[in-house]
Every structure is written in structure tokens, then in C-alpha cells.
Amino acid sequence: MNTSIKGMRVLITAGGAGIGRAMTDVFHKAGARVHICDVVQSSIDDTVKAFPGVTASVADVSSLLEVDQLFADAKSILGGLDCMINNAGIAGPTGKVEDIDIKEWERCIAVDVNGMFYCTRLAVPMLKSAGGGSIINMSSSAGRLGFPYRTPYAAAKWGVVGFTKSLSMEVGADKIRVNAIQPGIVEGERQDKVIEKKAKAVGNSVEEQRKITLEYTSMNEMVSPYDIANMALYLASPAGATITGQAISVCAGVEMLG
């Protein structure tokens, strides 16, 4: 199986922590030229130090001006683009729909959906100039299942799937492949915070809520950020050369979310 990506020019949003950092690690070790962005300077500093040769910009993908600068940096440093990974996203608020603050709803959509669009609209011309390439968008199991108390996040991640499928049809003739990855319950600090918020919203202890969360997966376990990163590598590589328009779950068999 050919998963060689040596020399591939890759841009990863939110590449300094969590799934994004795992992607940065995997693509860097596979020989790609990687440029990342993140909103936290310390995360960028740590990642660039850990993976010599990786370059970075501070950018909030919900800001058009910051995305414009991010792509100017990437174009200057990489000289082009072969793979765009729209990884940036936030968990959004947890609560009953009538209790969700409008500003929290808007912020979730701004990062998880608008930010993906802002980056993609600049990535596509660069990929066309390169003769084709790959776009990988981060959805979620919440983008294929109902997720009570997490309606902003679920709405955003369903939106990612619709955007992905539509764009794949639009740019297929340009040899650009577009896919989404739908992670399940990913171990790490972010998931710990989600479980804590959900426990508070429904009146469970954190321990009870964690147990309930894992019971919703057929394998009764979380997935690693590296499981997600390895799927991204496969999709970006020659091994995934004819895969496009797909929403691929990496989730340990998530059967429902609650």
C-alpha cells in the first residue's frame, strides 16, 4: 500500500494540540512539508520545537483577515499546496436549546463551519494550480447521529458533511478529492471537558457520565488522536487516490450520543 507523502505540501488548521498536533506529527514524520495554524502561541511554539521543519502562523479561522494572512504565509513558505486539512473546531455550548446563549451558538458555527469555508475558498485555487490534491474536513460522530444538549455542535458537524459531499462533486474534475472524517469519542482534555459539562447539564457525576458515554460505543472505548491522524494520512496519500465525497467514521463503533 502506497502511503508515501514525501515532499507533500500540507496545511493543517489548529495543528498545535489534540487531533491537530497528532496530524502534524504523523504528516511530518511521513516526510510532508507542514504548515500549521493555531490560536494559542504556546501551542505553536511547543509544536514547532517538537517537529523541526514545521512552520506556523497564529490564526483564528473564524476571522477572514487572519485566514487571508495564514494563506499568504503558507503560500510564501510552502510555495503551493497539495493537501488542506480543516481541523479547527470548538465543542460549543452544552445545554437545552432554549438555554443556549446566541453568542455561543454563533461562535460555534463561526469556527466549525465558517472557518472551514474561509480556508477552503483559498485552498481550492492553490490545489488547482498544483494539478490536484486533497481536502480533509473534520466532522464528528455528531455529524451522523443526534446529540441532545449539543445542538450547535451537531448542526455544525452535519454541515461539514454537506459541504464535503457538495464540494467533492464540484472539484472532482480538477483532480481534487474532498472527504470528511467523523471521529468518535477522542481521548484527551477536550473530551474530559465535554463530559464534565454534560454531567452538569443532566445531573450526573463525572464518573457516571463517562461510563454512560463509553457504553454508547460497541468497543466500549475512546479513540486516540493518532487513529484520526492515520486516517487523514491514508486519505491524503496515493492509497486514497480514488476516495472522495465520503464521511468516514473512526469511532470505535459509536452507536449513539447522549
Overall tally of structural domains: 1
The tally of helices reads 8
The level of helicity is 40-55%
Q: Evaluate the radius of gyration.
A: 18 Å
Q: What does it look like?
A:
- This protein is of the alpha/beta class.
- The protein has one domain (9-186, 224-250): Rossmann fold (3-Layer(aba) Sandwich), CATH 3.40.50.
- It has eight helices and seven strands, in the order βαβαβαβαβαβαααβ.
- It has a seven-stranded parallel beta sheet, sandwiched between helices.
- α3 (64-78) runs parallel beside α4.
- The longest helix is centred in the middle third of the chain and has 28 residues, at 102-129.
- The radius of gyration is 18 Å and the shape is globular.
- The N and C termini lie far apart (38 Å).
SSE layout and pairing:
Layout: E1 9-12, H1 18-29, E2 33-38, H2 41-50, E3 55-58, H3 64-78, E4 83-86, H4 102-129, E5 133-138, H5 151-171, E6 176-183, H6 189-202, H7 206-215, H8 225-236, E7 247-250
Parallel strand pairs: 1-2, 1-4, 2-3, 4-5, 5-6, 6-7
Helix pairs in contact: 1-8, 3-4, 4-5, 6-7
Brief synopsis:
With 258 residues, this protein is of the alpha/beta class. It has eight helices and seven strands; from the N terminus they run E-H-E-H-E-H-E-H-E-H-E-H-H-H-E.
